[in-house]
Write a structure and sequence with these properties.
Distance between the termini: 35 Å
Helix content: 40-55%
Number of helices: 11
Order of helices and strands: EEEHEHEHEHHHHHEHEHHE
Number of strands: 9
Largest sheet: 9 strands, mixed
Strand content: 15-25%
Radius of gyration: 17 Å
Length: 280
């Protein structure tokens, strides 16, 4: 995998699609890694996009510093990769932790964000989300990574998915042990505890924005996404029916269909951006 140095640390990334295509960047969730976007990269590169996937500091094949990573370092990592590629602008999509990173990038560098897909994320942490985060962090520190994964899986996925993948789940969890480092992940979660609300900066976002929220997402529920819808001028909130927090993994075909339709509008200059709510 290609690498770029960011603050003295190696950050690994992947590129798919034509070298002259517009850049579309995916930002991982907290315990994810770039391979999980492989099907998305294959599809979007087929429509002429130059698809960027990368592991943030503490994830996958990138360096895993045990100390010193702040939340703002993550959007700056995306910026550093775009600089390395010579890309002035990019379409950006992120989920959960990565969705909030993508939001912050769009707030701080609005001129570099061609469009934004913000999924299962937040601009401020309501008390329920904060307490859930504290509980997950304590599970990680006091018991270990297996405890965190056991909590996250039923919070992220539906009953149907859990039942269908019952036999494969142990192998998935072992894969999580291989790609996640305990202390690096602890540092990533600590960077979230230092997250400062960005609601007052959402008005800076000038690009077309599609906000996606799972109907049954109780980790980042609709109230989190209503804040985004109200504050971002060119936004539209789409509720993905029967979906939970990690709908990009559980419902990739639906997610890709929504992204395709959004990009069609963006490329044609017809995205409504009317702050309405739609059901997918």
């Amino acid at each position: 995998m290609p690498e770029v140095l960011v603050g003295g640390h190696r950050v690994s990334f992947r590129l798919d699609g034509p070298a002259d295509g517009p850049v579309f960047a995916f930002v991982n969730g907290l315990t994810q890694y770039s391979d999980l976007w492989a099907a998305y990269a294959a599809h979007l590169s087929g429509r002429g996009m130059r698809v960027l996937r990368f592991d943030m500091l503490g994830q996958g094949a990138s360096d895993k510093p045990a100390l010193g990573v702040r939340f703002e370092d993550h959007w700056r990592t995306l910026e550093a990769i775009l600089d390395h590629l010579g890309a002035e602008r990019a379409h950006v999509a992120g989920i959960s932790f990565g969705g909030t990173v993508a939001l912050q990038f769009a707030c701080e560098r609005p001129e570099r964000c061609a469009s934004l897909v913000a999924m299962s994320c937040f601009a401020e942490m309501p008390p329920q989300l904060h307490r859930l985060g504290c509980g997950l962090y304590e599970s990680l520190v006091e018991i270990g990574l297996p405890a965190l994964q056991r909590w996250l899986m039923p919070m992220n996925m539906s009953d149907d998915w859990l039942a269908a993948n019952r036999d494969a789940i142990p192998q998935m969890m072992r894969r999580g042990y291989a790609v996640n480092d305990l202390f690096a992940l602890q540092n990533l979660m600590e960077s979230v505890t230092g997250f400062e609300p960005i609601t007052d900066r959402l008005g800076r976002i000038s690009c077309p924005v599609m906000i996606l929220n799972g109907e049954y997402d109780f980790f980042t529920p609709r109230k989190c996404h209503e804040v985004l819808r109200r504050e971002i001028a060119r936004s539209r909130l789409v509720i993905v029916q029967h979906a939970y927090h990690a709908f990009t993994l559980e419902h990739p075909a639906v997610t890709l269909r929504l992204i395709d339709a959004f990009l069609d509008h963006v490329e044609a200059g017809t995205w409504p951006g009317d702050r309405t709510v739609w059901i997918a």
